[in-house]
Here is the input.
Amino acid sequence: MIIAIEGQRIFRKKKHGMDFVALETIREIQKIDKTNQYYVIVAPGEDKCLKETENFKIVEISSFGGYFGWEQFALAKEIKKIKPDILHCTSNTAPIFCSSKLIITLHDIIFLEKLTSKNKSIYQKLGRVYRRFVVPRIIPKAKKIITVSKFERDRIREFLKLDSDKIISIYNGYSKHFQIKDIPKDVYRKYINTDNYLFFLGNTDPKKNTERTILAYADYVSKTEKDKIYSLLIADLKQEYVDYILGKNNIQHIKQYLVCPDYIPNIDLPYIYSGARAFLYTSLRESFGIPILESMACGCPIITSNTSAIPEIAGEGAILINPLNIEEISTMIERLIEDENFREKQINYGLERVKLFSWENTAKELIEVYQKVFNY
Here is the structure.
């Protein structure tokens, strides 16, 4: 087979969820499959995190018009040149005009669902508009749709009225550098000047539930003696947005306990998890939730949500709260700080649970899909 894999953003320095899914899956396929010919098509970037091998070629292409121009024109043009048997687009969208057999990884369809609140990020708003335009036009052309959980598979199938054999769920994995670090302080002290902290991955996307999570933290602060308060380290969120939330809710007094370094490189995250007292992953809606696995693998207990695909990934033994209930989040923060036996139980549960997931399994299942589509 000749297989082209779209990995547009895997060379960018500040990678996020879908970028890592594509990158780690490609790396594992590269280890496993020495027979078929692969072309990994990417946009130029600083982080050359993937190397060519005999049957894996990396094709860098540039374009005008941002994401739209790259995918709809530059990628489509390159596919005409390569003439692969299969094109696998890894991040929800694909060229509308494509002659190769198309496989799409549709991580979720949140962009097709009604917004629960306004998104303040222009970039995310434009991305939503683009996906809402493209996805309905490429779904009928796809030979197979891959998503990342049973919850999302059923949600997509029902929402888009798909035949059950057209969509399959393949779980994500987690990177092996996510493990308990013996001396995490050497790294996490670059970001926060205390050993007593909680960790939260923030985001302006409404589904990330950032405002309620900060309100829950404020509730925890209000019930805790000043010298016993754990700080909150918030990654991926600019201070201006945090200040907006504090001002809106009149809780500026907690600012002294918040640390917002914005983006934290993936290579440093295992040290952040390993040093944190707890990880807050209180999303309203997730199709998978890779940070759940990363935190578990680093021995960091998680407070997470009882919604969407999260219970499927975190499992029945995890701390599953109602993400709309601020007091419930706050109470669990207190318990993980104060109850050492409870915290230890959660750590041990996570270390066992995470053994069910790996990028190797993801890659093996994906190669099987390639073979089935090729023979279809």
User: Anything to note?
Assistant: The chain has two domains: 2-173+358-375, 185-356. DSSP finds 13 helices and 13 strands in the chain.
